[in-house]
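User: Could you walk me through two proteins back to back? I'd like the raw sequence and the structure tokens for each, with a short line separating them so I can tell where one ends and the next begins.

Assistant: Of course. Protein one, sequence then structure:
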Amino acid sequence: MNVGRFRLVLTGAAAAVAVLVGGSAAGCSIGGGTGRLASGESGEPVTITPADGAAQVRPDGRIEVRASDGRLQKVTVQGVAGQGAAAATVTGQFGDGRKVWRSDRTMTPGATYTVTAQARDGGETRTVTSSFTTLKPSKTLSIADVTPNVEGEKVGVGMPIIVTFDAPVADKAAVERALHVDPDKPVEGAWRWVAPDKVIYRTKTYWEPHQKVRFHARLAGVDAGGGAYGAEDARATLVIGPEQITTGDIRKHRMTVTRDGKKLRTIPFSAGNGQTREYTTTSGVHLLMEKGNPVTMTAPGRKPGDPGYYKTVVDHAVRFSNSGEYVHSAPWSVGSQGSANVSHGCINISPANARWYYDIMQRGDIIELTGTDRQVEWDNGWGYWQLSFDEWRKGSALR
């Protein structure tokens, strides 16, 4: 299946961004200042940090606004990144009886920010502004891909969120704190780092079906370690479809498909013949990963002329592991389906059943198989549900 990339909505610096030498903060401090009175009057009713005209401000620094008299009424922060792109939206909180406001997130590197503050003292309101620029580091960190990544795609209740970065992450804890998952129907979940540049989110229990899950990486300005700062924010939305679960007993040669708890169909099949480990269908909780029609299957690690070599084109193939396991059409084994296991490890079903199964399949649907002594490994494809949730979250940098 030719799977397109999910379209990410990026809300940070669009350009590659330049350098914090050796991690030094020299020239990068945030100094306070009075800003500019919009009315042109003199006086210091409001102090804004960073000061007006400040440069090389650390992207992970804090903006602070203080009122010497009266109370702050409103504070806004607007940012512009390279080539006029919008910078990360900076929010904040009032404190000390609205005499102080502090930002609560990081800023886009290489951007210009303008802080506008209104303070009221008695019957008089004054507006003060301060503009400054943030540091351009030599290295940045961006998100290269989010899976699922097909716009408008509905996915199954077991679907993970797989985030791949464009470089290894030095400070995994700092980056993980910037990753937020917001489902319509809340459920506990955790991130697990599976590679220096890849982290995966899995829930404790399956997602509730028929909902949206929003992913937001507040990455812009995060100190990712090794001199790199997050270049920009990223967003994606998952659409969780119906709860589709396939359960199959390899010894009994049948699987049952349910949708939202209701039985749709029981399908006779033929699984791996079990003569070798390679030809043994894995038991355990699998996720449906992708589908293709047709798919060419070849014997792994073998070339033409080798014993056991095969090359077969199959229709309506649904992948459920990285070790070559599919549910697919197998008209040549219809006589064995429901009574014997004769395949090289795949689940062989009739052409009519394969077409039906292919059409309803969603990536992230559950297929749970029993009946063999070969368990699918948790890192074989998307076998993540093979780990208990306690085991899963041990892979978090924030455990």
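----
Protein two, same layout:
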Amino acid sequence: MHIGEKIRQLRMMKNMRQSELVEGICSVAYLSRIENGKTKPSAPFIRAVCQKLGIVPDDICDDDSNKKKQRIANIISQYKKTRILNETDEYLLKISLFESHLLDTRINIYTILIRHYLTDNRISEAQQVFQLSKKSVPDEVPPDLTIEFFYYYLNCGNIFFSTQDYIKATHYYELAERLSNRVGEKDLAILFYNLSLVKQHLSQDKTICLHYSQKSLDIHKKLGNEVDQAKVLITKATQYNLNHQYNQAIKCLDEALEIVLKTENVNFLGMIEYNYGRAYQSKGEIDTAIKHYETCLQLRSKIGAEQPKVHTYRELILIYMERKDLGKVDQYLKEGLRIAETYQQWYHYVEFHMFKALLYKSHFQEQLYEKETQRLIDMAVEKNQLNLAKKMAHDLGRHYYEKNAYKKAADFYDMALRFEALLHAPTTLADSES
């Protein structure tokens, strides 16, 4: 990448117009020629522009500068200690993505930027870095870089988990698991916890996700990490709920609540209330469940945690659909769809639209139900939400069977079987689409 292109990239990262960058320095036309590689910039120009961009000239002038390489190495080392990346260092690392560096440096840069962007909820930027990494990261892991690749795979999995693409997330978490024999116990507990979450969404047999959550819990207990213990206990409660072991779920929540009240970590109270709601909803104690869900939403609002509300809205939608309270259903659907789209939670985004389609059916608008469900199956495939695609195809097959439209019923039953086959081969699918 020539100097002009680096200047252009940095300018765009800072959302600066050409006129803003060169004000008091030169003409926009001169900058355009430099950015297009038609004119070699002068030393005074480089110094002035770099000052405005918040970098030093070495950052863009000499890819092989020992001073620059040492600075990148220092940024990597410092980030691993502090998990803090300032804006200037972020830009230098991002520019370095377009330069030639040794594999260990590249893999560290990819990992740091992905993690940094995910922490700041800048998902699209994390995805951009991931796509760049796929062009230069080899499939085969060098023996001396197993730890670096472990963290790279772990953070790649986190990208797909954040957008609810659990198939691809599983693929990268399982790659990380193969390299986990040399990492610390705390990071191992994080990986096991993440695996428990993706297995929870993909596996019919919930004993698999309970196995991983227990492995994570055992490590946190060994290390004495009470806050992490509470988080895993809440997740175990969710998994017990899914496995129809409601009393076990409540027992986990009681244990988690005791830790949370002792440590005064109010962030987990919303999660606990939500899972109490799930347990009581499943036990048929609906009014008690609603109270827990409403308390959960209040707690989420109090601490400004909007994104997790989507799970609570889902359960309230199901309750009020059953009670045929369409006003409440519409209210929670609007809020749920807004949050799911804003945070790219594609599983819930498709599912909420699926609920809307089911409302058509309940109002005897069968053609609307059929047309919308077929559209949503395509959307679910596009977003890699094959569990939902399978469910909708199966439901549509049963719908047509009940209408004596046996040919259409058979087509959708076959489609559901194809999705089921793909779900049982997640690694292959992830490889082919990465």
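Residues 65-183 form one domain.

Let me know if you want the two compared in more detail.
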